[in-house]
User: Fold this.
Amino acid sequence: MGRSTALCAVLLIVAVVGGSAWTAGAARGSRCKAVRTAVSRPHSVTVTEFGAVGDGVTLNTLAFQNAVFYLQSFANKGGAQLFVPAGRWLTGSFGLISHLTLSLDKDAVIVGSTESLEWPVIDPLPSYGRGRELPGGRHQSLIHGHNLTDVVITGGNGTIDGQGSVWWDRFNNHTLDYTRPHLIELMYSTEVIISNLTFKNSPFWAIHPVYCSQVLVQNVTILAPPDSPNTDGISPDSSDNVCIEDCYINTGDDLISIKSGWDEYGISFARPSFNISIHRITGSTKSGAGIALGSEMSGGISEIKAEGLHLSNSLHGIRLKTSPGRGGYIKNIYFSDIFMTNVEFAIRITGEYGEHPDESYNPAALPLINKITIRDVVGSNISVAGLLEGIQGDSFSDICLSNVLLDVTLDRSPWKCSDIKGYSNLVCPESCEPLRGEAPFHSAACYLAEGLRPQDSHMNQPGILPVMVASL
Ligand SMILES: *[C@@H]1O[C@H](CO)[C@@H](O)[C@H](O)[C@H]1NC(C)=O
Ligand SMILES: *[C@@H]1O[C@H](CO)[C@@H](O)[C@H](O)[C@H]1NC(C)=O
Ligand SMILES: *[C@@H]1O[C@H](CO)[C@@H](O)[C@H](O)[C@H]1NC(C)=O
Ligand SMILES: *[C@@H]1O[C@H](CO)[C@@H](O)[C@H](O)[C@H]1NC(C)=O
Ligand SMILES: *[C@@H]1O[C@H](CO)[C@@H](O)[C@H](O)[C@H]1NC(C)=O
Ligand SMILES: *[C@@H]1O[C@H](CO)[C@@H](O)[C@H](O)[C@H]1NC(C)=O
Ligand SMILES: *[C@@H]1O[C@H](CO)[C@@H](O)[C@H](O)[C@H]1NC(C)=O
Assistant:
């Protein structure tokens, strides 16, 4: 063992011991500022009052639609709750209204119909110009909303099951007519809470807030088989003031993926994703990343803080994806307290991701990637520490790595970097040459956003790791 390998090994032991202490001590108040504190509604109805039958066979689309329609009259009287009792409630797509709480019993399962006619086709998003998978419209999500404010979707861990396998099959056998639907999509909405629920088998991305502000996603479980295509967990898209915490996500693609529109459509729509906080996410993904930014990022992504990611048996830990033609930016991003085991690529930046909506994109529209800080990372059984590839002639700068300790199994070139620049400090194995500048932490280059500062990151308490290094 060379000196630097030995040093990495010692640091890892210290870090892993420190890490488990951190996990045990992590119980733990909410760090999301409540969008609205405990909303209680003066009126409540149960979906059975509108003829719904929870036998798993009867189609209840009309019952849900009628219940929501009826509750409109309470919107200006403090709002109302629609309660879904224990049972299996088969339904097609239905819409929500403002000042509504959709509340599921712990044994309630809302089950998405496998008939695609029950998921009407709607216009593409203006920031995408077309459906994400196919030109033209897209199927409407199972639960959707447009122009809403003050919406809560919650339950004592009740379930929303999209029965996605027919959609995955149609994707795999190329018989989809339009882009697949989400389980929940809210557009142009504010003051949204999604909490205390389990989401299963989404046809496509599970939770998709788009053009939204003030969104809280808390304490949800999202499950889909490891080989289900594009079943991303939570995808805030052109949305701001979003807080996501305490989620367990085990799906076929990115656990959390932040986006903001696609190529020329995203550039002209120009609605960024910003001020997004993510805390305490646990999960696995065989073909995606724990947290991904992009690849659709043409409206810009900034002021993102993600702390406390526990990832196992996954392809990528942290991933940034972009491409010439996207334009936009990804800047002022802060990741910390990341624990990974059995992960192939701990950190990956892909500058040439490709995938364009049509031939009209402008290849000269280059994305700006700046101030990406990744610190306090411990990884065991990692195949590749970092594959960091920018775009020739573009600027991917101020990439800062600090206190990143990875037990890398493929020994030769654990870091591969091209067309990026930045800094590193206490990185094992030693980072690639373009990142070897001494990290100017607490300077403006390594990002510590005002208002997005880490609050109780134990691993970067002064002393612990630097002392170990000094004593070796
Ligand atoms: C949402 O609001 C916009 C602007 O106020 C309006 O043009 C649009 O028709 C509304 N959409 C729905 C579905 O209410
Ligand atoms: C998370 O949800 C479960 C089940 O709904 C509940 O028992 C638990 O108290 C919730 N935890 C938090 C922090 O809200
Ligand atoms: C909620 O239910 C899911 C699936 O049934 C389960 O895996 C999870 O542990 C439950 N979550 C809580 C907080 O009880
Ligand atoms: C594709 O998958 C769908 C859903 O399972 C199935 O109904 C259809 O028959 C399949 N088509 C072909 C051509 O395999
Ligand atoms: C989630 O459930 C817990 C425990 O029942 C409750 O205290 C909390 O308020 C719920 N969260 C939301 C946002 O409804
Ligand atoms: C960021 O969003 C949170 C809600 O998640 C909000 O409470 C906070 O005020 C926002 N911060 C800024 C600087 O706007
Ligand atoms: C190491 O991680 C890889 C996945 O990256 C996995 O296939 C392998 O089984 C893991 N090895 C051990 C010893 O856990």
User: Anything to note?
Assistant: The chain has a mean pLDDT of 90. Residues 156-157, 196, 219, 246 surround 2-acetamido-2-deoxy-beta-D-glucopyranose (ligand 2) (CB under 6 Å).
